């Protein structure tokens, strides 16, 4: 049995970011923490290469690895009306998962073991947790760790009222003429035909004057087939005036958008991070900024010798607002294209991005709320409050509680 102080399960954005931060933890402590990063062997369980997009100020953790960045962003309404402005104080950024993985691998020191294992079970304990796994050759492996951080996406919890899917397919395209401004991106283009409920939009992230990532996205209850996405992307490229394009690569995915709760602590020594730990913002599907805040907090706690419980990176009021918005979209009370057009047309872009990132302040949020479809959102808010009161009256599902500690009130 191998002994570690920290085991990180999963080599996605959350697992790689925490593994990367362990170098800083060891520098601060002076006594390195032996760490293992566990990923499934290459094969059907390996996620395909993908891009991670997010916004933050200049000088972020991954800036040296960025594939692209954009300061000027555009939102297009259903009628083609254009709302373009700088994203100040933010930049919209793109990372490639392969670049992050290679960077973490290349900078790993003797205190970080990267192991290819199928994790089959976790056993909690008062002093350590045990990770049960299988090696590629079928050999059973056990690892013992003081702290275990699991970033594998779990099934969507059943305690949520509304669950939508953000589902998408993107083409990396090349044009035969200059067609893109490398310094400006289309964040949301609401001109595609809209579903009965939810919303559909395209976006364009230029990589050069002739190359870009063009994606078609929907918020809805069910995903499309690859053929249906390709039809939508072909139509969107025509709407965007790109003409014939050469598709050099593609990416596709589904992100749950739900008001369900994702507890970050599941045992004395067991924690969840990333999407598994609630780092995905329910109203947007963006995860990377939540991962950054969550792993930074874990790293600080490890460096200071505290119990490293990952925080949920969003305020309770923001999660309540997200639940209301998801309900309004799913019920059809608001038309998604109208909702987002009003939001971006009436507010400074940087303020909207701050709200969507969970860093805005209440007075600005209230003012922003007045620019959305007020009647429909008010009715949905009352509906949400009534549902919450009935749910509380019926009992609150239990959460993990460490022995000897009073339950929270």
Automatic annotation (TrEMBL):
Keyword set, alphabetical order: Isomerase
Top-rank taxon: Bacteria
Sequence intervals crossing the membrane: none
This protein's record includes keyword Repressor: no
InterPro entries: FAD/NAD-bd_sf (IPR036188)
E.C. number: 5.5.1.19
Keyword GTP-binding: no
Short name of one Pfam family: Lycopene_cycl
GO molecular function: isomerase activity
Enzyme class, spelled out: isomerase
Record protein name field: Lycopene beta-cyclase
Species name: Nocardiopsis terrae
